[in-house]
Design a protein that fits this description.
The structure is a single chain. With 82 residues, the protein is of the alpha/beta class. The chain has a single domain, classed as Ribosomal Protein L15, Chain: K, domain 2, CATH 3.100.10.10. It is built from 2 helices and 6 strands, in the order αβββββαβ. The strands form 2 sheets. Strands 1-2-4-6 form a 4-stranded mixed sheet, with helices on one face. The chain has a two-stranded parallel sheet with strand order 3-5. The radius of gyration is 11 Å and the shape is globular.
């Protein structure tokens, strides 16, 4: 799934995760997403919590961080970036 789509769902209100320190906390695995790609715009602060098997592209990671968000990786095998 593209990070821009997640951002759009947040803006529309069709995705309403909890907030932590002012950031939306998103667990891609809970959305049945195993890859987060970088297409689209990010203007919401997102804390992406990824499992070891979830891949996050470098572009998606860059956009999340540029918007004031962060990536947290759950312990285990490291998830590889594309």
């Amino acid at each position: 799934m593209n990070i821009g789509r997640i951002n759009l769902f947040l803006k529309e209100g069709s995705l309403t995760p909890p907030k932590e320190e002012g950031k939306w906390v998103i667990h891609p695995k809970e959305l049945d997403v195993d890859k987060v790609l970088g297409a689209g715009r990010v203007d919401e602060e997102i804390k992406l919590v990824v499992s070891p098997k979830t891949k996050v592209s470098k572009k998606a990671e860059e956009k999340i961080k540029d918007a004031g968000g962060s990536i947290s990786r759950i312990e285990g095998k490291s998830a590889s970036s594309q």
